[in-house]
Amino acid sequence: MQNNIFSTLFVGQNFIKLTSVDSTNTYLKNLLAKSEPLPDGTVIMADEQFSGRGQLNNKWLAKPGENLTFSLYLKTGFVSADQQFFLNQIVSLSVYEALYPLLGAALKIKWPNDIYFKDKKIGGILIENNIQGSSLKSSIIGIGLNVNQSDFDAELAEKAGSIIQFLHKNVNVTTLMTDICQVLEKYYFQLKAFKLESISRSYDSHLYKKHELSMFEKDGELFVGEIIGVTTSGYLEIKTEEGIQQFAFKEVKFVSTDINQT
Ligand code: BTN
Q1: Among protein residues, the one whose CA lies closest to atom 16 of ligand 1
Q2: What radius of gyration, in Å, describes the C-alpha atoms of the chain?
């Protein structure tokens, strides 16, 4: 049975809308811990998160009522633990494809799964996998998008941006969410059919700063390199003076975005 707002087969067919919650990811986790098994594709959306979580234990700050914050529950038992990066790729691609008609070619996926417009982060993804043995069992996928928030606190303003800052008009957050879920369902079926090469090819083609010289930092040392792609395990491949090197998440970070070639 389809519900009113999602034209999907299963993603979002069990939909819970909250006014205020600590974090939609945490809410889903608690629900799973204490209730009957949840339907595959359950979606929790909140107008406000008062303790939103980001990657690397960072906070996710979003002004109430102006942004999109939601989480999805997916049964991902068919994904082996060493293929879990494909899940990151399909979620990034879903956000990318849902936003592309609004924002166009300056939209990029910054490895591993940030959503960038020009040089501003407009969205982030937090995936929490439940791994059992050598496979995933289920995944909680949290998506935060800066949508109708025009200004950010000083600590965020340099790096963060929002859709309204670029489009100069309000965007309906619920429509955005249903669009993302619809694309995600398409990619979920592709992942289930193990169309892995095609998923990686699409992800790679939208990578932020691909084939551009950029400055990176590893263990306090700066180096210049060119992103050439991402491995199937999710390592970033950078061409440096010393050859092609692979980096895990947390191991390397962008320092500046543009290096002028001389
Ligand atoms: C990042 O650090 O870039 C990831 C941010 C993920 C934020 C979303 S908002 C909905 C869901 N609930 C959370 O607490 N975090 C994720």
Answers
A1: 142
A2: 18
